[in-house]
Amino acid sequence: MNLTLLLAIWASPFIRPQPGSWRDPDEAANYTCTRLSLEEAERARPGAVRPRGPRGDLYDRDVMLCQERILPLGLRLDGDEAVLSSLESRVTELAGAARGYRPDLLGATWLVEVFYPSPAVSAKISFAAKNALMAEGLRVSDRAPTLAAGDVQVITRMPPEDAYPTACRRYADNGSLRAGEVLLAVVQLDRLETTLHAGLCAAGSWTWLR
Amino acid sequence: MDPYAQNLVGVGLTVRCFSGELLSIQEAGSLCSKVGALFELQGAQVSLVLGAQPPSEPPSAELRTHLTVELRARELSASNDPLRWAACYASYSLIPAMTEQSFAQDVVVRDADGFLLAEASLQGRVVRYVGLGAWAGNTAMNYIVREEEDRVLPETASEHLSEDLYRQLSQLVYNAKVQSELLRSSQAGR
Predict the structure, then answer these.
(1) Check: CATH 1.20.58 for B11-188?
(2) B74-93 pLDDT, tens per residue?
(3) Tens of pLDDT along B135-169?
(4) Contact A161/B7, CB-based, under 8 Å?
(5) What share of chain B is helix, strand, coil (3-state, %, to 5)?
(6) Of the four, A15, A187, B74, B93, which is 20 to 30 A from B176 by CA?
(7) Nearest chain B CA: its distance from A116 CA (Å)
(8) Which of A195, A200, A201 should be substituted to probe chain B, the one whose Cβ sees the most B Cβ atoms within 10 Å?
(9) Domains of chain A, with CATH numbers?
(10) Which residue of A has its CA nearest to B186?
């Protein structure tokens, strides 16, 4: 018993995922750890934690629950990583804001367009945003509104505060965004930021949500 | 983002630090001056405030963007297991003793009207090993296995923590700056 305890104490630097003598910082950074009380740990991982004895424990125990990242850090750009690592909560917040801001559009068909530098990340954001809108009980279409080549040439030369309202007007004018349809645009305004902004385009009128 | 680039040129920044259970007034002041120096390096005009006092100098009206960064620190957990210390003593410190502390740095960024632009709770955890076994193992790893830049020295943990905090703070304030500019252009368009 005592030998087991001593071995466990000696071996803990190998088991615990912090950087130190036996694990370098890059490897340790690939773990996300949360400290839990014994009761929380029993609920989170039933059967994995020895429950508290009927007369209590000899000493206070808590649990460090660690999860290794599926994709190690460094495989994606830091900015993309920051966006994707919390994508679900971000798009849920955006979808909630969109639904709350225009309750009159609950019966409309919602389209999603993403303006993000990386096409691969854009596709992920778009998929997640559509899922979040559907979770809000909204009707979502896979269709994307389009602009004529001339419109794109003009709009891409404008500053963002003018470009998005202009694009919204053109969507309505060219019939690409029809009556009964609303566009949720998810935008990264600045390459250095890790925030996703959102705007709504309905009937040719543009509103920034955040 | 690079915390040493000119990210915040033309921004007036008030850094407000609060003392509490984790930081004394002196430590909060020290944190404030280090964070203030970081943002000055990035081109911001910085004023430092301890607690809820008003800033000594009002922000310059010529600057387009005024932000206030509020920093509060709190301890999440700490452990210092007597059993491990007993094992350390009993084994002539071949078995390392260990202390552990988790803490959170709560950051809030507001605009000049007090509107919340960004907030985050940055969490850190420091684990310290004490004893001949840990020292010998670490030293052997430093000189046999690790490259020079990867060596774990006594100051390494605080350097990594500071670097990580500065990068994340810089990113948060930059995000708030873009958000503030978007809100301003959105209001002007109405």
Answers:
(1) no
(2) 998 888 878 888 988 998 88
(3) 888 888 888 888 887 788 888 888 888 999 999 99
(4) no
(5) 40, 30, 30
(6) B74
(7) 15
(8) A195
(9) 2-68 (no CATH), 78-208 (3.40.120)
(10) A208
